[in-house]
Amino acid sequence: MTTETRNAPRDRGTVALVRTAGATLALGLLVVLAGALTSGSAAAYGALVGTLIVVGVFGFGTFAVNAVATLMPSAALMFALLTYTLQVLAMGLVFVALSGSGLLDDEISREWLGGTVIAGTLGWLTVQVVLSTSRRIPIYDLPAHQGGGG
């Protein structure tokens, strides 16, 4: 007696990426609202910029790792480590550019920006871990056609 198996295409992480970005945007919008209500427009702008930084940097990194894992699974871990390093570098460069622009403390609250980046990063990582551990990922892919020799 054999059990019929379903040969569905493997989930490449797009659903997890969209859900994680959506959850992080929702968290960021709550922080923007809290900043606007408690500390004014500079806090709201700081929270908004922080949210966009987190979603942009982590979203692009996750998309790139998923693309490499799809094309070359054997290089996925190496590329993920490289991507993490580049994400840290990208965030640092964004902060240096914002500090040099003169927008911080005048138009954008430095405290709300930093706090939102920290909260957004923790939120992003939490949602990624929950979604990644709850996905059922097979160890191997079944062949496209199995000959049933009976």
Automatic annotation (TrEMBL):
Q: What is this protein called?
A: ATP synthase protein I
Q: What is the lineage of its organism?
A: Bacteria, Bacillati, Actinomycetota, Actinomycetes, Propionibacteriales
Q: Where are the transmembrane segments?
A: 16-37, 43-65, 77-100, 112-131
Alphabetized, the UniProt keywords read:
Membrane, Transmembrane, Transmembrane helix
Q: State the organism named in the record.
A: Nocardioides agri
